[in-house]
Amino acid sequence: MESYCGKNCVQCAYGSQIRCPGCRWSPGAPGTTLCPIARCCQEKGHESCHTCTFKTGCNLWGRRESFPFRPAPQQQTPSWYRSSPPPQPVPPSPPCPLPTAEAANILGKWTGWRFFLELLQIGWAFLVVAIPIKSLSETASVILLTLSTTFACLSYFQLVKVQFGYLIPGCFRLTIFPLNLAAVFLSDNRRWGDQVDILLILCCLLYFLVEWTEALQNKQAIAGLNPGLSKCWNGFSWALLLIGAIALLGILLESVDYSTGVSLLGCAILCFGAAMILKLVFLCQTVNALTKYLSRLEKAETSSWRRN
């Protein structure tokens, strides 16, 4: 390709460094403003240096073989032409941290107490909810409610030392206690029959919240040791929400369509009973996982002590 200076464009450093398309045959190309010879010919209107009368003594013409005498600036690619950066790989989520030996000890101990309390609570459910309304004395009802609430809250508040979220089910359980007491004391008065039913319904809904929040905390506590069991606790929490929604729908429909509302409530009660039995299984597996983890820690500590 012919240039202003007569040099072959293949041998021109401007052409190799900035990919100049040719200083004569591409008007307006960025390369024509970089070469001083091309700029001089364009300003004076010459077709090449051979038509210039000052060619013989021209300083630029004499140095044409050494151009460029400094590195040519790199041509910047237009912003619209720049390709988008490759997508960065998503870093894997860090695994859940394992509990310390002290935390695992507290979790295993009081989760075991939660297992036995749930066993007693299933037996007490018929006494606390069904019998006090008509048969059980107020004193016996109050004693049962007080013992149940005390031991449940004690276990929750002990677990708060390891995981603060257990405070939520503990507070919900404390809220249920005065409502249950009011239902017990008002159950003998027929004038308060509707209010007693409302209090019992409210207690049941709050109890759903207790079980739901406890399941979420159990899921988080066991996530680092047994991810599969953690997923089971997660599914259990969603099942409790579904059962609570069915129970609430049955309560709302009871005043409109009594048979449909009672059917939904009965279905919710049966499902909740099955869920409580399933909860006992999950609690037992959680205690076993924590116990095995503590035994591994003790063996590792013993072997390290023997090496030293």
Task: Kindly describe this structure.
It is a single chain. This protein has 308 residues and is mostly helical. It has 2 domains: 9-66, no CATH class; 101-300. It is built from 9 helices and no strands. α5 (138-159) runs antiparallel to α6 (167-186) and α8 (227-254) runs antiparallel to α9 (258-307). The model is unreliable at 27-32 and 69-73 (pLDDT under 50).
Number of helices: 9
- The beta-strand count equals 0
Biggest sheet, open or closed, and with what strands and sense?
Answer: none
Report the helical percentage: 55-70%
- The N- and C-terminal alpha carbons lie at a distance of 81 Å
Helix/strand/pairing category: mainly alpha
Number of domains: 2
Q: What is the global morphology?
A: elongated
Strand content: under 5%
Radius of gyration: 41 Å
Q: Residue ranges: pLDDT <50 for 5 or more in a row?
A: 27-32, 69-73
Q: Write the element-wise H/E pattern from the N-terminal end onward.
A: HHHHHHHHH
Q: Mean of the pLDDT scores?
A: 78
Summarize the structure.
This protein is mainly α and 308 residues long. It is built from nine helices and no strands. The longest helix is centred in the last third of the chain and has 50 residues, at 258-307.
Q: What's the topology here?
A:
Elements: H1 13-18, H2 36-44, H3 59-62, H4 101-130, H5 138-159, H6 167-186, H7 193-222, H8 227-254, H9 258-307
